[in-house]
Amino acid sequence: MRTKYARPHMGVSVLTLVLGGGLSLPAVAQEVAQDSKGFALEEIVVTATKRASSIQDVPFSINAQTQADIQRTGAKSLEDLSRNVAGLMIQNLGPGQSQVAIRGVSAGQIVRDQPGVKEQVGVYLDESVISLSLFTPDLDLFDLNRVETLRGPQGTLFGSGSVGGTIRYITNQPNVEEFEGVVEGDLNTMSGGSVGGHVKAMANVPISEGTSAVRIVAYHTEYGGFIDAIRPNGSITENVNNGTRTGGRVAFTFQPSENLTITPRVIYQEIDMNGFNRQEVYNLYANPYQTDPTVFEERQQFLKLREGFEDQTLIADLTAEIGFDGFDVTSITSYTDRDILVSRDASALTGSVSVDLGYPDAAIRLPSNLRDSTEVEQFTQEVRLSSNGDGPLQWIVGGFYANTDRYYQQYLPTPGYDAFTDAVLGDGTAEATRMGVAPVDSPFYSELPYTLEQIAVFGELTYDVTDRLELTAGGRYYDYKEERSVTQVGLFGNGVVDQVDETSANGFTPRFLAQYRASDSVTINAQVSKGFRLGGVNDPLNTALCNAQDLEIFGGFQDYDDETLWNYEAGVKVQGSKFSLNAAAFYTDISNLQVTLDAGSCSSRISFNVPKAHTQGLELEFKARPFEGLDLSFAGTLLESQFDSTVEDSTGAVLGGVRDGNRLASVPEFNLGASATYSFPFDVAGDDAEAYFSATFQHRGSLYTQPSDQEPGAGNFVSGLPYRGATGDEVTALDLELDSYQTVNFSFGINWESMEFMAYVNNVFDENANLSFDRERGGRARLGFRTNSPRTFGLMIRKHF
Predict the structure, then answer these.
(1) Is residue 16 part of a domain?
(2) pTM
(3) pLDDT digit string (tens) for 41-57?
(4) How far apart are CA 250 and CA 540, in angstroms?
(5) Which of 25, 334, 504, 774 is most open to solvent, judged by the fewest CB atoms within 10 Å of its CB?
(6) What backbone torsions phi and psi does residue 41 show, to the nearest 5 degrees?
(7) End-to-end CA distance of the chain
(8) CA dist list (Å): 547 to 484, 555, 707, 778
């Protein structure tokens, strides 16, 4: 295998990357240099191009947060990590639900009842693809080697879903040489919230020294709650959004010969959250306009029923690499089985429809539970061949196959509702609308089984034109088929049973890269690449809920086409004696951007294509060690992300905020993250140790949840629902531009040879940020904002064996 190492540089890398799992490559691939004062500096090797190469030799923009970064900053999720990654935006949509955007390529908010929408950022666990739109697994970060963020389209090597970029969780692989073990405990409490914490452990055990080993990881986390719920009787239930995450993984490595490595692995994780991080400003049952008015305080919501999110994820994969004279063969086989349930209190939604239909107050007050369930089985197989010689021409070629069965079900159990339906709309109405499919007392019921099949072939050639100039050309051909069956019945439904829809697509995505080593410390790179995201078919509208205007506007949307973009970028990587810099400028030209739109009174979401859009910007990451013991880092992004087309409905009105010059949703124009760590010798009872102070700062610029939120008057909501003294004509005026915010985290730790202690405070100034906007039935039933965790105090102890 050809392994490219960077020339020894005097400085600390911008990206502190340490080779971990993901490929059957050497466990450690780095060189150490010394600067004039004797500081130990690492030359880092990564696998972002599916072969081992120095970070200086990766010819495009990449970031990685290492295990040391994760531990030092106390990051517990990808959202936490993103604050130190230029160009990466994670929009929080609730527990286990987040939306990832890189370089501003965003379709806006994707919600739980859009199972056909594909992701824009591909997510991998080592070599196994685990992406699932909206529900990409929120994996625990314990015992990870690093998290890589590959910016820009990665379709050549990583396929569909990587139109904006790719994120890779790289785990630590079994070590066949020696025993290792770690135990970690954490206890924390939140201002105005409850207590949380975790226990995590890892054991690496050689089975046969030098040839086989097993690595076992287990973890359990208790999440404290910080949202309080007002109940119908006026009482308050505190901290309703607490929950747990439990899981682990077992990986085996077998090296029966020098040229053969086999690594089977099983990962299992359960998430069980009891509620959502939603703070409300209006609810059908609790608002300022009623005879008994309610004004919500910070981090409060109204609930009739307990809400929750459950996710059970099983991933089994096997990676095998065989080395031959001149080339290596790598095979990755992966199987994923997931069960997801989102349970929401939809009483306000159902009650708002009941007001429209003229039902009595007793019907309007009925508790109603909307249950969205997703079952996914996915099998993927990738086989690739890659050169391993030392010549100027290097190559990689492979094939990929994926088969996904996804069963989505949504129903609305509302005990007692059928009796009111028959009393108001006529005997037998409820049974007739069930069409022999829906259960009783469920005014809405849907089933959407999907079968998705994809095949692809890909390859890249890299040629060293000179000792300083390297050129790469590659491409991927894909062929994709999707079939689904739609059943949607009940009083609120569309009256569709077993309607079959099919879509298919094929195409080719090329990539061209150039890298020039201007000197031993300066590398210049450029890239032109194409990315793609597969299209699909919209779900039928809930036509029974639509008013005439919304039915006219949204009733015609059915298929939406593949989204494609061309990415143009140029970057520089500089490594000096006490600093390093990674900077890039980019422009993306997007065609047929898939935009998601809230279909107003229909309580539906639809996707459609916008002919033209673009993003352009600058990203910069800087790290410095001005003197021994002090490490500084900075990551910043300046971004323009806009529509270049205007989409109008049949009346000539701009549809969903898709107006030439309007911003794309879910991404800020400016993000900044910075950290500083000062380490110093610390003598405790005669034991030599190292102590450190660390601080991190994040600024997130303002953004919109959906494109339509920036249109004039978008923040003025009128329910039209006369109920409990409210006329329905009152205006709830909100600013839907989510304000910029800043957070600061502090930590103090002491490291002994085999133990570490850390005390930390996150969100020091208790910033209550609006992360995304939440509306039910176009805002007629409920309005609120998802928010972040309050100030958190914690203690962590970690023991190495």
Answers:
(1) no
(2) 0.89
(3) 355 666 777 776 766 67
(4) 42
(5) 504
(6) -125, 140
(7) 33
(8) 27, 11, 22, 12
